[in-house]
Design brief:
Layout (H helix, E strand, L loop, with lengths): L12 H7 L3 H7 L11 H7 L4 H12 L14 H34 L2 H39 L13 H7 L4 H14 L6 H43 L1
Helix pairs in contact: 5-6, 5-9, 6-8, 6-9, 7-9, 8-9
Length: 240
């Protein structure tokens, strides 16, 4: 599902979206509203208070998950990265996961077999893990990172966060992509079905779309956020 497209700061944002419609999700996660008119990538970034190079990095990840990621960011980009991650959490929990569960319930009604019941059970276990992961990020990781950002802006580090480290985040950073792959495999390789074939197709397409967005989400955490936070921690340590 990767789309390798050549995007520069001068590219019209509307052209980039036409080439890769998944960028609509990027815009939504960053709180950028349509219409785009004839604004360039650089202009859209500037009007929304987003670092241009960070915006370009996001766009390139949406086009090619294997693209190189610039690690020369300073830490000022952290609030934008967290905005993206928080909004994507909301997109998953409020829209994507309920939609997927509704299709699975439809499969159960159509097939009512132990296989479809297994699909529902597997998905609910996956959903529980995802919600725990998101809650950990929202309540522990993100506040800590914002406090680091505030500290580097001249404020004192709160004592409640001094015992934490991004290394713990890396250890806790569950890979939720593998569960999605397993769920797709169940649907493609093992689920017999005489009724509800259209719903199975709809479910698989939803899972592929979700997998694509979550892979981008994970790479933004792994290649952008975690290295930035490690650098911020080192800078604060050197200040003491």
């Amino acid at each position: 599902m990767d789309r390798t497209i050549n995007i520069s700061s001068a590219t019209r944002m509307s052209e980039a979206v036409s080439e890769n419609p998944f960028l609509l999700l990027l815009l939504e996660h960053l709180g950028i509203e349509l219409p785009l008119q004839e604004k360039s990538v650089s202009e859209v970034a500037s009007m929304n208070g987003i670092d241009r190079e960070l915006f370009l990095t996001f766009i390139r990840l949406y086009g090619d998950l294997n693209c190189s990621v610039d690690n020369s960011f300073t830490g000022e980009e952290v609030p934008t990265i967290l905005l993206y991650l928080r909004n994507s959490h909301g997109y998953y929990t409020d829209e994507v996961y309920p939609g997927i569960r509704e299709i699975i319930l439809g499969l159960n009604r159509a097939g009512n077999s132990k296989e479809t019941a297994m699909i529902e059970k597997f998905f609910m276990q996956y959903l529980s893990e995802v919600k725990n992961h998101f809650e950990y990020e929202e309540k522990t990781v993100f506040p800590y990172i914002l406090q680091l950002h505030a500290t580097l802006s001249g404020k004192d580090l709160k004592e409640e966060f001094t015992g934490y480290s991004v290394a713990e985040y890396k250890d806790h950073h569950d890979d939720i992509e593998e569960k999605l792959y397993d769920l797709k495999s169940l649907l493609i390789e093992y689920l017999p079905m005489k009724e509800g074939k259209q719903m199975r197709r709809m479910l698989l397409l939803k899972l592929y779309e979700l997998e694509h967005d979550i892979r981008i989400h994970s790479r933004i955490e792994d290649y952008l956020l975690i290295p930035l936070v490690a650098s911020m921690e080192a800078r604060i340590k050197n200040m003491r």
